[in-house]
Amino acid sequence: MSTVGFISLGCPKNQIDGECLLALLDEKGFEIADPYEGVDIVIINTCGFIESAKKEAIENILDMAQLKEEGLVGKIIVTGCLAERYKDEILNEIPEVDAVVGIGANGSIADICERVLEDETVA
What are the strands of the beta sheet with 75-80, ordered from one edge? Predict the structure, then answer.
């Protein structure tokens, strides 16, 4: 069973979206882990509408990229508003990220997790 850590940033809508994502993953047999160190996948649900939210999201992505480099997390998936607005920039600037998917992909999160576990980059 694959383990997933989850970081939810931003507004209350993101928190609700995050709860829905976690429920979908749980239904598909993923184990939700807290804390996120040692997980197979970490999902960062981002906000990207105000400058401070973008900065917080990027800092969290870079923190997870560092943990990935150290072997403390497996794959990194970025979702949410920042991913929706800046998909190409994230993929080009932070190669440690394995998937960047906007809010329209929420219903496919389990499939996306399975694909990145098979070393596929998803955008």
Answer: 31-32, 3-8, 41-46, 75-80, 99-101
What backbone phi and psi angles, to 5 degrees, belong to 106? -55, -40
All domains in the chain, ordered by first residue = 15-117 (3.40.50.12160)
Per-residue pLDDT at 14: 85
Q: How many CA atoms lie within 13 A of 60 on its CB side?
A: 26
pLDDT tens readout for residues 105-121:
889 999 999 999 999 99
Provide the whole-model pTM.
0.95
Question: What does the pLDDT look like over 48-77, one tens digit per residue?
Answer: 888 999 999 999 999 999 999 999 999 999
